[in-house]
């Protein structure tokens, strides 16, 4: 007997068609977005709106993640090199995921062939068809070698990466030294280094390492993975206790912020549980900063223009170890900005200082961004009309409707007359 097809479900067909239509329009909109980003970037307009790069402006204005913003810029730039791919994307015939996958393999010679196959096969079919095919040479927006860190909501840190052969060997050697540094007494390690040099540590400690390996595999000892963790932490402690330059390595010291009412937190890792803080404090691997109820590190004023090393460390702790500018997450080439200029009578006190990367500092100096204090808050104004406010030294948030207190006639800080 021939089976009869069931009657079509008109509701399912109607809703399915709606989803397909909406998705197609969404891809067309995304293609349009990337085309606008590419043009914006090519014209170098980010600086005019108070940002060091197109990615930094997208982070601040759209509220998207660092990785998403810079991915958009990278994809937008590459799409300009492949007109057929761009046309099919704008027609809604390719998904964004497929576009990203194709860009890893496309060349001007194979563009039309691979794009047509992508339209026929979809993402997973294309992924299977491209398996084993050589990708474009590493570099630019898709580096072959990398190292990344990310934080979970509970404060745990994930580490993953891929190193070239030479860097991999260097890391392995450093981990070996780190393991010895973590497990051996300081005097013993110093003696080994003085007598034999680093290169001979392998030979001199081979028997000890055999015993450590046996213990790692024993049901009573620590697992091999844990031994690797000891190796890494030993290496980390070596670097942290001997930073080449404290001003260029402000994060070489773990900062614990303690409020006047007894609470404590890590400025760079708000999700870290109290047990982690207890461990840090008990092992004396930290610098303690006392902050008031407004998030300000308590300090004594200073009459000179340059900030002290202690002030710089406190500022970096207060601002999570990064640039204070909304949308910027740079942690290197930091400079100290006077909110009220030194020439205008501004003091070199912590409540008048901000850590800014050199790029953002230039934007403020050139007038692309205005920063002012309003009571215990810090206000950032940009040329595109966006206003961000840092409430009591917290991360700046978008607040276009925020109104500042009027500035007193003597030009002083509005905090002096705010009730």
Estimated radius of gyration: 28 Å
Helix and strand composition category: alpha+beta
The unreliable regions are: 138-142, 195-199, 213-223, 245-252, 299-303, 413-419
Into which percent range does the helicity of residues fall?
Answer: 40-55%
CATH class of the largest domain: Mainly Alpha
| Major sheet attributes | 4 strands, antiparallel
Separation, N- and C-terminal Cα atoms: 88 Å
Across the major sheet, the strand order is 8-9-10-11
Percentage of residues in DSSP E strands: 5-15%
Number of helices: 14
Give the secondary structure arrangement, pairings included:
Layout: H1 10-42, H2 54-62, H3 66-79, H4 83-90, H5 96-103, H6 111-130, E1 146-151, E2 157-162, H7 165-183, H8 186-196, H9 201-204, H10 206-217, H11 224-241, E3 255-259, E4 264-265, H12 274-282, E5 287-291, H13 309-318, E6 334-338, E7 353-357, H14 358-365, E8 369-374, E9 377-382, E10 387-391, E11 397-398
Parallel strand pairs: 3-5
Antiparallel strand pairs: 1-2, 3-4, 6-7, 8-9, 9-10, 10-11
Organism: Corynebacterium meitnerae
InterPro entries: DUF222, HNH, HNH_nuc
Keywords: Endonuclease, Hydrolase, Nuclease
């Amino acid at each position: 007997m021939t089976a009869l097809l069931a009657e079509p479900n008109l509701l399912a067909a109607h809703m399915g068609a709606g989803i397909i239509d909406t998705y197609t329009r969404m891809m067309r909109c995304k293609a349009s977005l990337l085309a606008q980003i590419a043009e914006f970037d090519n014209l170098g307009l980010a600086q005019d709106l108070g940002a060091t790069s197109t990615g930094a402006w997208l982070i601040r204005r759209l509220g998207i993640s660092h990785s998403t913003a810079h991915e958009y810029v990278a994809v937008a730039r590459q799409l300009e090199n492949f007109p057929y791919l761009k046309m099919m994307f704008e027609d809604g015939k390719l998904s964004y995921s497929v576009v990203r996958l194709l860009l890893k393999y496309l060349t001007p010679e194979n563009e039309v062939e691979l794009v047509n196959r992508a339209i026929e096969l979809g993402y997973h079919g294309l992924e299977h068809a491209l398996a084993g095919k050589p990708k474009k040479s590493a570099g630019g927006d898709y580096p072959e070698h990398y190292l990344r860190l990310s934080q979970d909501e509970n404060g745990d840190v994930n580490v993953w990466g891929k190193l070239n052969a030479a860097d991999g060997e260097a890391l392995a050697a450093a981990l070996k030294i780190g393991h010895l540094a973590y497990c051996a007494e300081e005097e013993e390690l110093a003696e080994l280094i003085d007598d034999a040099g680093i290169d001979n540590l392998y030979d001199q400690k081979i028997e000890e390492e055999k015993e450590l390996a046996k213990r790692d595999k024993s049901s009573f000892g620590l697992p091999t993975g844990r031994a690797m963790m000891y190796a890494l932490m030993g290496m980390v402690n070596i670097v942290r206790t001997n930073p080449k330059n404290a001003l260029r390595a402000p994060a070489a010291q773990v900062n614990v912020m303690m409020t006047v009412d007894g609470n404590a937190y890590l400025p760079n890792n708000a999700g870290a549980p109290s047990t982690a803080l207890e461990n840090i404090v008990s092992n004396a691997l930290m610098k303690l900063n006392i902050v008031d109820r407004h998030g300000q590190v308590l300090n004594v004023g200073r009459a000179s223009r340059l900030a002290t090393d202690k002030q710089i460390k406190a500022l970096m702790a207060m601002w999570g170890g990064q640039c204070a500018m909304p949308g910027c997450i740079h942690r290197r080439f930091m400079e100290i900005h006077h909110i009220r200029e030194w020439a205008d009578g501004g003091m070199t006190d912590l409540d008048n200082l901000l850590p800014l990367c050199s790029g953002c500092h230039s934007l403020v100096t050139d007038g692309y961004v205005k920063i002012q204090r309003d009571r215990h808050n810090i206000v950032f104004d940009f040329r595109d009309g966006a206003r961000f406010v840092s409430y009591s030294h917290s991360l700046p948030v978008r607040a276009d409707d925020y109104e500042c207190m009027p500035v007193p006639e003597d030009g002083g800080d509005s905090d002096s007359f705010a009730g």
